[in-house]
Design brief:
mainly alpha, Ribosomal Protein L9, domain 1, 3-stranded antiparallel sheet, SLD5_C, DNA replication
């Protein structure tokens, strides 16, 4: 299994194997469902989805023009429906998380844009902005911009902005000068499976607070196939490197 960033390149390879593409989509969907944050996608993920859609359309046309209703035909229809399911559910899962974590994701992406070549969200080309995205796809970025504007414009001073725990909010606009700003639950426990022999690994918590200097590191022996339960912040780095997958 490749890293989360590199795995999206799989569908861009002209000689890519359909079985590998299907398996990579399945793993990505499982990781996305179980992780508390929106996993990094960017333009690579968008290209991956577009390539999958193209394959779906080609297969649908091929089946439509087929006059044989054999066992092979039934298998092809089944596999086509499985691919549709993976693509649709991956997009739906990311959309749900994007709505929940909208302010957090937007601020992180604005930081990414500002850190690359001093891009200006007002003056620079849309293509350059999209190239700087690390978490969302270009299509998700457009949705995110509109969604955040919608909440600020039409839900200010409404009950929607009162539902957020003040301890998880940051100062901004809205009722009592607070806009919902929910971070991913880094302390969520997740089940993981090791996909390659890692030997003895020292796990360090992601997003450790400066005030918690005594947060412990964890040393584990992780042979291939090992399954374990840990807080997400402890395995995030391994997940991004493609060394473990969530189950």
């Amino acid at each position: 299994m490749q890293s989360l960033i590199d795995s999206a390149e799989l569908m861009l390879e002209s000689g890519g194997n359909d079985g590998e593409v299907f398996e990579d989509l399945r793993i990505w969907l499982t990781n996305e469902r179980n992780s508390p944050e929106l996993l990094p996608g960017g333009q690579r993920l968008e290209s991956m989805i577009q390539r999958a859609r193209s394959r779906i359309e080609l297969e649908e046309d091929s089946l439509l023009n087929s006059n044989e209703y054999s066992e092979e035909y039934s298998l092809r229809v089944t596999e086509l429906n499985r691919l549709k399911y993976l693509v649709t559910n991956l997009m739906r899962t990311r959309l749900i998380k994007l709505e929940l974590l909208c302010e957090y994701v937007r601020r992180k992406e604005v930081e990414n844009i500002n850190n690359i070549g001093n891009l200006s969200m007002v003056n620079d080309r849309e293509e350059d902005i999209h190239a700087a995205l690390k978490i969302v796809t270009p299509s998700e970025w457009k949705f995110l911009q509109k969604f955040c504007k919608l909440r600020t414009t039409y839900f200010e001073n409404s009950f929607v902005n009162q539902l957020t725990n003040p301890d998880m909010a940051s100062k901004g606009q809205g009722k009592d000068n607070i806009v919902p700003y929910i971070e991913p639950d880094w302390f969520k426990f997740v089940f993981c499976e090791v996909v390659e022999d890692l030997g003895t690994v020292t796990l360090r918590p992601f997003d450790a607070r400066p005030e918690n200097e005594d947060e412990d590191e964890l040393e584990l022996n992780l042979p291939k196939g090992t399954r374990f339960l840990l807080q997400y912040r402890m395995v995030r780095e391994l997940l991004f490197e493609g060394k473990v997958k969530l189950v």
